[in-house]
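User: My collaborator sent over this chain with a note saying "see what the structure looks like." That's all I know about it. Can you take a look?
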Amino acid sequence: MARGALDRRAVAGAGIVPALLVCLAAPAFFVLELAPLGWALLALGVAAAFALERRKVAASAPSLTRDLSLIAVGMLIVSVIPLKAELDNGAMVRFTLALGGAVAVPYLISRFVYRDHAVRFPWRGGGRWKTWQWVWLGAVLVLGWLILPFYFITSGVYANWPLVDTPDLIARLFVGVGAVGIWDELFFICTCFALLRRHFADGTANVLQAIVFVSFLWELGYRAWGPVLTIPFALLQAAIFLRTRSLAYVVTVHLLFDAVVFGVLVHAHNPGLVDVLFLVPSP
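Assistant: Without extra context I'll predict from the sequence alone. Here is the result:
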């Protein structure tokens, strides 16, 4: 994005109303689980953006209506399946199709219908990793090891994930946790956040994408006081992406965090198996 375009982005303004309506559809879908309310908010948000832009929708410059419609399409696709964590074949196929479609369809619409290449996936956009990036990777592991066992076990939210007490189920959990973690960055950061940044200041776009990110994680199972952890994580991931311009880096951060999540879930469901690795005993 050019410097001039960056300077013209607003912290707020008339466009914040349709953007907020679209993003508030996420808690309607994934927290309240009221699909009709989610549909209404998406429709109102996109319609409000269209009313603001009118003829500018078809212009070559970034269009709020077009960009919000891409976010709306992605959310609609995700909302068609229950997000309760399950590990059977049918659930894994549903997750693959819905989450994959939520990334692929907006990308394809942006590239081949709108022809503005709004959605991109800069795998190594920031070049070689700096010292602070390597330090942060270590910090993520340490913080996850200290915080996540306490959260999952004392709150009881580990029970939101299915029992994993066989090698097959443990392997499925490992694949599922990692795959969803990668998807989070593709959709929430490279799609939602990137699209919102075309119209709003970085801080505003970050807060808006965090609404969507945290709502999804709530239905996935990060409940109780989980938002105390997931809100800072969502905001940090977007801020790190801004600084590094590297999808590879934010995915690595997320996978390290999820590796600890995986270990804690195995620990919680299998008393005595890996107790030596964690400070909080299994329930």
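A starting point for your reply to your collaborator: Residues 23 and 211 are 6 Å apart (CA to CA).
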